[in-house]
Amino acid sequence: MSLILGIDEAGKGPVIGNMFVAGVVIDKAVIVKLKHLGVRDSKLLSPYMREAYYSVIKKAAKKIYVKEVGVEEIDRRNINKILADKYVEIVKEALRDFENIEEIVIDLPSMSPEKLKSRIRLLNFRGKIVTEHFADKKYVVVSAASIVAKVYREKHIEALRRMYGDFGSGYPSDEKTISWIKEFYLKNGFLPNIVRKSWKTIKNIAPKEYVKKK
Asked: The whole model's pTM is what?
């Protein structure tokens, strides 16, 4: 049995809510079955289909790892450095749990692929490492990880909406999200801790709340 680990994130870009990084360890023989079932990049699936595939992935995977990154940490640190740390954490845990992982595939954001590979090599991994942009579109194992991360993010957003009302998707490109932030700030004179205050969007809307990263 040869295993492969896929890693991806959900929630890097939004101005509201936490980010989730997911890793999925799957037997390579199962990858073909997942592909035939239609597992693909989470962004190409409806919320209903993501939930359905998430159930399939949970049964098919040897193990799933999920790391949640809160707004406070995102406002304090460089998000690409946070991601690199979470990727390495997941790899470390997976290698500890499984001796027969032969390949690691990571959807790479804006960071040095060689630097990330070097950090993984320091964990004494001698197998194949793939770090690529849009890996979630090319590799089923990363698509599976993207679905897991997205489902966790969506459950998190649903919980926040129950507490704060409908603020839309949470992305800066969403007019509903921006309107909600503006209205909340106008009414209360501050922003809730679910809003990432280091985003430039906040610098324009509520400059007193804006947090500049060191």
From this structure: 0.94
